[in-house]
User: What shape does this take?
Amino acid sequence: MCNRCPRRRPSQVCESDHCWGGPRADCERSASAKSVLYLADHVMKHKRLRRFRDKSFTLLQNMDNDKVKLNARLRHTTTQDLQQIMGLLRNGGVRDWLQTSMPSLLWVNTFRRPGLTDWATTFSSRMIEFAERVDDMTVLCHLCGNHPGSQPVSTPAVLVQSLIMQVIQQHHKKFTRKAFPFPLEHFQDVENDMEELWALFCSCCAKSGAPCVLIVIDHIDNLRKGDDYDALLHGLQQLTENDSRLFKVSYLQDQQALHEQFRKQWKMTRRAHASPQSLCRGRNLRWV
Assistant: This one.
């Protein structure tokens, strides 16, 4: 209905020159605008937000049981691995990295061993627990180790979709305004477009107002390689170099499966030894 013609009944045609489209415009565009679904219509209730997610990013439903899978895997962590991980996290270098007011990247080399134990995922989960206690830090994570590389969810696009929804869930009160780029239709349109997904992620981070964002990714080499993978690495690098917001990125990768493009993009400038044990199994930490 035309706001300039409040007496017009819905069945009538607007005669006003002020209505969209000039004289006798139908005002159906106004009615259709009301039918647009926005994130703001769903964000305040968990169940509605999940329905919005399911309509927007359909593959994220396959990750709903990841916490159960993660807990099952963590139960197989050996005492020796756990002691080593806790020693690394208590190290002054790691603590300073988390708490310093500078954007940066932490790259942890690791490797897989036969069996159910998973050092990389255990380290990531412990880092997340520690970072959540740091004031004013938004912690986003994507544990690629929960899914083999052959599964449909093991793509850079799904990783970015996951980060987008985590930002919205943690700062849902900031997304109550009905405005672009937050209608449902836009989320659906960008679902498989890496460039647009990354732009949406950056918009969500800006809208959230989070002063510091930590992104933790394990087994990044599980993701499907290609242009989207290269774009993801480039985007993460740009966050820690050019963005005005404080971003910290930590990811773990199998050193036996390092991607050549990755090695070209990331130039290691400083190496830190957290403890003698941190290198005894081929694991080390590097800051950029």
